[in-house]
Specification:
This protein is mainly alpha-helical. The chain contains 18 helices and 2 strands. The protein is globular.
């Protein structure tokens, strides 16, 4: 009996290749609908229309407002509640199922976008923006955990990089569309804030995203391209699921070395959007920067996806290659950014000052920095998810890891957005960002060296082993079958 899941044919969540059941995939239109790519595209459009619009607003710097303080506090609230709920959202996903979790996760985005329309009409509604941010953090935690579980369980092992890249490209196209709406609405404006039409357009798109989970296939009916059935999460007691969090860490402590990488993955947005884009540019330049930033992410995710899924290289070689690319990009963009950051402070460029326009002679070089930051961001997120996927084929474990990822990255983001809101110097935020990104790479290197293998083996699957032991005991009549609550 084999104990490894070979990468060549291995999308199964079963640890035993000899016992894998291969099913015939549906034909015709039904086959198209139930194809994993189709469902990943639908999933991507959920994120295109909900988190994508959130990114479009955030990328404007200050949510498109003149004074970014309210937006920074609201974003801090988003990530603070997100950090708490995401840590347990994998458990919720395993309990109620990925489709319901995804649907619930979409609900906070429209409220959040609507709050910016409200403050644009009623300037005293800052409390509503912050409250909406806190509620969005709760729902977003569930959306992203469901997304991670679906995306990483629908593909075979050999497809993980390309599935992540397809998702990331479509998802970031949402921010591109949102940025296009903003740029089109404000192309003739040299003010420092957006008009109401920008928020209305983004709000309509967000509402469309809430409907898509209702149209998606039930995950338990999905069959991968290699004929293996997607193994959906168990539905045991809450006590068993919380124990799963502990088992996931104890049986695979190497995941702790990825935590600094997770922590940095949303930390850098604050400097990019509020302390660079909002600080230096007027609204139409901010809109164009925002557009190019998210467009470059589509390119970046595709580039790194090709490397991470290259059939010419073993998986360990691909992991080290991806890490090397991130290292080069990290130092390239941060050395470049430091050259600009040393020329301005909060005091030298107040929010209501005359700011850089798209026709300024200095502008082309500055927008190229935003483009390279977009490339780095996409490569960082794609590689992080790929490393998570390379550690396990267990759907339940992937859901828990996805929860860890989003919880920890949100904790970092909550802290840095609050630091920005209270006026910490731009240079301090920039240097802390640079140091954290480098730390993420440094800590992840030994994890890649010691943990990433060319195949996923049974010894790596702590939750699978636990389930197998429970099933064996049930079969022998040693414990009761059925769930205890």
């Amino acid at each position: 009996m084999s104990s490894s899941v070979d990468e060549k044919g291995g999308g199964s969540n079963s640890p035993d290749n000899d016992s894998i059941s291969v099913y015939e995939r549906p034909k015709g239109l039904r086959g198209v609908y139930y194809h994993p790519i189709t469902q990943i595209v639908m999933l991507a459009f959920v994120c295109f229309l909900c988190p994508g619009m959130f990114n479009a607003l955030t990328g404007l710097g200050g949510g498109g407002q003149v004074d970014p303080t309210t937006s920074a506090n609201s974003t801090c609230a988003v990530y603070a509640t997100y950090a708490f709920f995401a840590f347990f959202s994998g458990t919720v996903n395993n309990k109620i199922g990925a489709k319901r979790t995804l649907l619930f996760g979409t609900l906070g985005y429209a409220l959040y976008v609507g709050s910016y329309l409200a403050i644009n009409i009623h300037p005293g509604a800052g409390w509503f923006v912050v409250t909406s941010g806190a509620l969005l953090g709760v729902t977003a935690a569930f959306l992203w955990t469901a997304q991670g579980a679906i995306m990483l369980s629908y593909c075979t092992e050999a497809q993980k990089g390309i599935f992540i890249s397809i998702f990331w490209a479509i998802f970031n196209l949402g921010a591109v569309v949102g940025a296009t709406v903003s740029f089109g609405q404000n192309i003739h404006s040299t003010n420092n804030s957006v008009n109401n039409g920008t928020y209305v357009g983004i709000l309509v798109l967000t509402l469309l995203g809430v409907t898509i989970p209702l149209l998606m296939a039930d995950p338990d009916k999905m069959i991968r391209t290699d004929g293996t059935r997607v193994v959906m999460p168990r539905h045991p007691s809450w006590k068993s699921e919380f124990h799963g969090l502990w088992v996931a860490i104890i049986t695979d402590p190497m995941v702790l070395l990825l935590f600094p990488m997770f922590f940095a993955s949303n930390y850098f947005y604050t400097w990019q959007f509020n302390d660079y884009n909002s600080a230096l540019f007027n609204i139409r330049a901010r809109s164009l920067n925002n557009f190019m930033y998210w467009l470059s992410q589509i390119i970046g995710s595709g580039m790194i996806g090709v490397v991470l899924d290259s059939k010419r290289l073993r998986r360990r070689v691909r992991a080290f290659t991806g890490w090397g690319i991130l290292l080069v990009m990290t130092f390239t963009v941060h050395i470049w950014a430091y050259y600009y950051q040393r020329t301005y402070t909060r005091a030298s460029i107040p929010p209501d000052s005359q700011k850089m326009d798209i026709y300024d002679t200095r502008y082309p070089a500055h927008i190229w920095l935003m483009i390279f930051y977009g490339l780095l961001d996409a490569m960082w997120q794609t590689t992080s998810f790929w490393l998570i996927g390379a550690m396990s084929n267990d759907t339940n474990k992937l859901a828990i890891y996805s929860g860890f990822y989003h919880s920890i990255q949100s904790a970092g983001a909550a802290g840095v957005w609050r630091m920005d809101a209270i006026g910490l110097p731009y240079m301090n935020i920039f240097l802390s960002t640079w140091c954290l990104v480098v730390a993420g790479l440094v800590f992840s290197l030994p994890m890649i060296y010691l943990r990433i293998r060319d195949t996923t083996v049974l010894e790596d699957e702590g939750l699978m082993r636990r389930d197998q032991e429970i099933n064996d005991m049930k079969a022998k009549g040693m414990i009761e079958s059925g769930n205890r609550t």
